[in-house]
Specification:
With about 220 residues, the protein is mainly beta. It has 2 helices and 13 strands; from the N terminus they run H-E-E-E-E-E-E-H-E-E-E-E-E-E-E. The protein is globular, with a radius of gyration of 17 Å.
Length: about 220
Amino acid sequence: MSKTHFIQSPVDRYFNLVLPENYALIKGVKLTHSGFFKSSQKGERMKIKGEQYFKTEIPEFQWTGKTKLFKAKDAYVMGRGQLKVKLLGIIPIVNAKGPHVDQAELLRWLAESIWFPTNLLPSDHLHWSAVDAHTAKLTYSYNDMDIFYIVRFDEKGLITELETERYMAKGRMEKWIGQVSDYKEFDGMLIPYHIKALWRLEEGDFQYVDFYVDTLKYEYEK
């Protein structure tokens, strides 16, 4: 597929920068990462290793993360989200599901599309609207759910931050921010290899994710 001109600035700058002149649409992704995770604001910062699979034809992902204390599985499959955590990989301590988890996991899939940027191209489900020269609103509709991000770009046109309102727990919506950096070329595209995620709370920011991409593998549409 050839590049087209995107009317909305700064979105046009972003796609012109991160996509090659001729590109294929990505339909599947396998990703591994390392980094750090915190389960609570006052908790220990733990090393973590993760493996994740994404689909783009419909929103789907499955993630498995391991620390010295727990094994977690996070997923959005067939329009439903679920988070399972087992202490020492054996004792179940979390099994979260329901509409609030569906919303959180669909938002995760959309934000992490920065790792496979053809998934952020405008479509029947996905729309961009410029706010100013360095900010745009990204909206996505699926399965009777509407979600959004306020997306911020640097002077070059690269995405640096995504902000939304997301369920932190059932009945509790908070401001969520993803910060991305360390862009590198992969398969002709520019991809951020470093991502941080935080909750902006009244008592202060709670950064719980600090991940570095280790490997990426794409499956393209034919």
